[in-house]
């Protein structure tokens, strides 16, 4: 049984939600210590950990980052954690890479660092690691994600994943309660919410950009159906291909919501509850990864960079430390029916390809 499969087999059975990856992180830490790394556990008081090996010779510090958290699903009415985004595979690939990098004595200069971060799905795991100093000394950082089959099948990999910026906005609309027979004495928060939803739908950015802003949740219940509701809560999900486009979209959305509420005398209290920056990818790092992919899969295995409206909290690393050179690649594993799907599955043999490409990248930077 291959090393990566052994790790996966265990990690897959212990899915843990963001910032609760206690067993996952304890297992990874133990393996990394055995492999000879200097391990820092509980980075910034979280389940995150960092493993370091210093060759003692001058050279860059290269970090490979993996995420560890599972997703919370509701199956048959029961809440449960499941690895439907493949973070157990990412952790298994990074852990195996760390072990084989030592076994095969690949690092000849500089320092190699493995960052196992919590809570990617919550969008705050990378930020917690950054606050804990995980990338203070890092020059180059690489991350990877399994890709759906239709985007990148097994035997192929993309050297750059251009993720979009994503933002969640939650808004409380406040009106004035009244009897349903006397609506003129109240201000209907549900009307304010629906006006705001329509106003946001009428926002336009340059249509050449791949963006969207849409309401994804509306909660309003005064407890009775014959009174005017005074409170409504609406969530919007925003996507934009660049951080600049997201800034423009966010400003327009917040203004539309505020004006829509005010048009009937209601107020809107908006909170930006989650923000993930767009991909900022360094071309030199993309080139190193592309070469690493070709080393393992040949020229035919390398596919073009992928642009996706999905978000990835990895991009907080280059956003918070602009001097870091970041690369993010996608691995084809015949993943179906899709990420975050409760029946998500993929060809487990493809994890070995992930390990080999990761090692090839380490070899190219530190070998
Ligand atoms: Zn995910
Ligand atoms: Zn993911």
TrEMBL record:
Ranges where the Peptidase M20 dimerisation domain occurs: 167-260
Q: Which branch of life, at top level?
A: Bacteria
User: InterPro entries attached here?
Assistant: Amidohydrolase, Bact_exopeptidase_dim_dom, Peptidase_M20, Peptidase_M20/M20A_hydrolases, Peptidase_M20_dimer
Q: Which keywords appear in this protein's UniProt record, sorted alphabetically?
A: Hydrolase
Under NCBIfam families, the record lists:
amidohydrolases
The entry's protein name is: M20 peptidase aminoacylase family protein
